[in-house]
Amino acid sequence: MYITVAGNGKEVKKGLTLPELIELEQVEMPDYVTISVNDVFIDADKRADTVLKDGDTVEFLYFMGGGC
Amino acid sequence: MALTDTQIERYSRHIILKEVGAKGQKKLLNAKVLIIGAGGLGAPAAMYLAAAGVGTIGIVDADDVELSNLQRQIIHSTEDVGKPKVKSAKETMERMNPDVKVNTYHMFVDASNIRELIREYDFIIDGTDNFPAKFLINDACVLEKKPFSHAGIIRFQGQLMTYVPGEGPCYRCVFQDPPPKDAVPTCKQAGVIGAMGGVIGSLQAMEAVKYIIGKGDLLTGYLLTFDALKMEFRKVKLPSNTHNCAVCGDHPTITEPIDYELNVCEDKI
Asked: CA quadruple A55, B236, B152, B139: dihedral positive or negative?
């Protein structure tokens, strides 16, 4: 199936879960990353149960604390 | 009040813009913007707002200028090392534009002072370097119904979003709670390319100006991210399922700003 991750389209296996995508994308410190799927925030405790579907759009939003 | 001949000349490139005009320039001259943090983000934001003729600019920072600041904090110069950042920033802004009244606050923001501090300003710019301050500013702006620009920079990356009361998610909608101390690296630990403050801080000034003149689309409901190595901007749409937000949601549990444990971007080498 085909999904869009951070603006880039990619072919992934059918039934990919969010934790599998996090590993595939080598997301750094995933505990501190906010994730949205199709413009809906996914609660941290729902990640493990989130199975992606063909055409889904996933965004990873990272903490950025600097300003100094 | 009518613009003087000197002001008409000084702001001519603004006045000629149909989106600004004399009317918009007067709005800028009557506007009050508070910049929290006179560092990498606050420096360019303050300078562009001063040049633009924002009539009252408040600047908050408890620190003194250090040599290691000068690689990016362009409002300060070599001779300012050792001076309070707010004093150095005020001197630069006043040199740039005598139309601007600069209020300085040589202190840290905390739960006891933030609400009163932001109350008299029209727009707030978060140029701070730590998560406790970012959440403090967000919560205070939500509670006081003040628009603000959030930004963060690190390494070759930056991010930006704008909160306007009632018009989209707040910072806490996106990032529920501050990360634990030392979980996410600071600029001192990770570094930051100097011009990143210029790019993102100038965009914060741009949002403030657009808000004041009431033109264009603000970054409400979006997080703009910038990757300088890829030279790529992305405007990421933020979800609207934020009714559970602890501060701006339907049933808020945060009704006063919170002092979280400080984990500042220590700049001393």
From this structure: negative
